[in-house]
């Protein structure tokens, strides 16, 4: 019993498991039906697709024509109708099974959607599950049989095609073998023909090649010979061309070098010692002086007309004249752009501007621009600043050149106290010719070509005055430029039979004969000059430089730092300007005298008395200044006279080209003014020189004492070259290199050398015995 109970329990458990499995399967089926609406979602579509394929197969096989029997039928061909028939049967069976499966699926599908339809259809599906699986199996079996039949039919078709192709290949091989046999038979004949023709061709080619080779060699040899000759000719020609070109370049370079050397030699032959010395000695002007020379619309007011006692040059349309910078010059003060004729000469036209008040001088501007007269005269008393004005015009040439670049300015400063060349017409011609040629090398070459003998000239002594004049006139008349010639100091020309004022005026007339030259001259109003020059446009320095003198005086007095109020110093300045009467050198001498008085601690009353007592005449002024030295000892005055004689001696030796240099000048000045050194030097007959350091100390002290010793008649000159000595410090001697002494002005030379008072001064002193032979 116990065993049966166990079996019953196991059976019960199995039933429970089967029930659970069935329930699980039912639930899964319900879920599948609920989700897809069909118990087998893909089965219906599979059956439908298979049915459509079978229907198409039936139609395809039903439309095929009955195959025609061949003359040699094969087994494959015999089986073809049987296979097609069987394939049709399988397709019909497959269609039937698919239709049955579709009907079963339609029966099992829920009649209504949703969960209720799924619950109703699930038991039905589970109940007819075996039938559904059987129908599905039948459909699968029919499909596999149909697939196998299709493959069998395809194999049969392929075998039939293979057999047909094999038979065609067999027939083709026989024809090909026959062709190959025939070709082999004819190949022997063809080989024989080819070999025969090859031999003939080889022989022909060999013969033709040999012939061609010979012809090519002959042609190439001929061409090579021809080209070799051509190349040799070309190389020879090219080498000759290169050689000719090189020779031409070397010749051109040598010609250029020769021309440059000739040009430099020409300039060197025209340059003489001290040619620019006088120009360089003229001190620069005060920044505000001489502006009036380049103006033609200015009014002049007397010094006493202003409320502050000052006089000014007032411009109607420009108030910048009183600034510290140089005044800008209006474009009307120079040659206008159309003021030069087609020939390049100066021409006349009416002035474009008129002064608001009659000017006390002929306008320098209008003369430059419009006046047909070719000479302008700057007249003035001795020491009135004529040379300074001429240098101002020369150094401010930009006012003229800015509108007419073709203008060139030439200048020369005659100097009676200088060497013969510095005061002679020959020196003037050398200077002008040197200036014009140094700026125009082309014209210089034309001169050398026209006058080749000039190449033999090495110095100014190789020229004659006539040769210089002819050359200068030729250059000025044929130059591409206009020229303004500035000649200063006509009254200082050398007074010799071949020189003199008349000869100089004749030269000036020759210069202005050309329409391309104008000449501005300056001189004292000496009768011989006044008679000829006063008919030309002119100005008088003493009438125009009052303002310039006032500026200089005020500046110098302010620099002296007087212990007085502005009114007193202004009154003293006005007093000096009033007594100067336009003479600059008089003002300079008076200011120097005031400086010496101030150094001697003179009070203001004494300084006033000193100015009021000084004569207006320069000769009397020099005499008055010398007489003030009577208070000094005879030894002090004797040394001063020695310096006068040395200055005269220096001038005399310079004219003889025996120019003193460096330490010779220094030795002479230092030794001559020291009795002890002079006695030692003379005792040794000039072989024993003083110590260099002691010499420098003596000279330095002399330089500081000179203004007081010579009453303002002598001054120190300092050229650029430095004095050097191996025995002392070069830097200490450098400021005194080639230092000498000279007269402060030509009026000082005239006073010492020509006036009765000056001759008395020299002859009255015991020191004159040393230099009496040098007195001119």
Give the topology, please.
Elements: H1 2-36, H2 43-63, H3 75-108, H4 115-127, H5 129-270, H6 277-281, E1 298-300, E2 313-315, H7 364-369, E3 375-379, H8 386-395, H9 398-401, E4 407-413, H10 420-423, H11 425-438, H12 441-450, H13 465-478, E5 482-488, H14 500-511, E6 517-523, H15 527-533, E7 538-540, H16 541-544, H17 546-560, H18 566-580, H19 584-599, H20 604-613, H21 618-627, H22 634-655, H23 662-672, H24 675-683, H25 692-709, E8 714-717, H26 730-733, E9 740-743, H27 746-753, H28 756-763
Parallel strand pairs: 3-6, 3-7, 4-5, 5-6
Antiparallel strand pairs: 1-2, 8-9
Helix pairs in contact: 1-4, 2-3, 3-5, 5-12, 11-13, 17-18, 17-19, 19-20, 23-25, 27-28
The whole-number mean of residue pLDDT values reads 72
Query: What's the tally of helices?
Result: 28
Strand order of the main beta sheet, please? 4-5-6-3-7
How far apart, in Å, are the first and last alpha carbons?
190 Å
**Secondary-structure class:** mainly alpha
CATH superfamily of the domain at 277-544: P-loop containing nucleotide triphosphate hydrolases
How much of the polypeptide forms β-strand, as a percent range?
A: 5-15%
Supply the CATH class of the domain at 277-544.
Answer: Alpha Beta
Radius of gyration, CA atoms, in whole angstroms: 68 Å
CATH architecture of the domain at 277-544: 3-Layer(aba) Sandwich
Number of strands: 9
Region (Disordered): 307-333
Domain Nephrocystin 3-like N-terminal: 363-524
Keywords: Repeat
InterPro entries: NPHP3-like_N, P-loop_NTPase
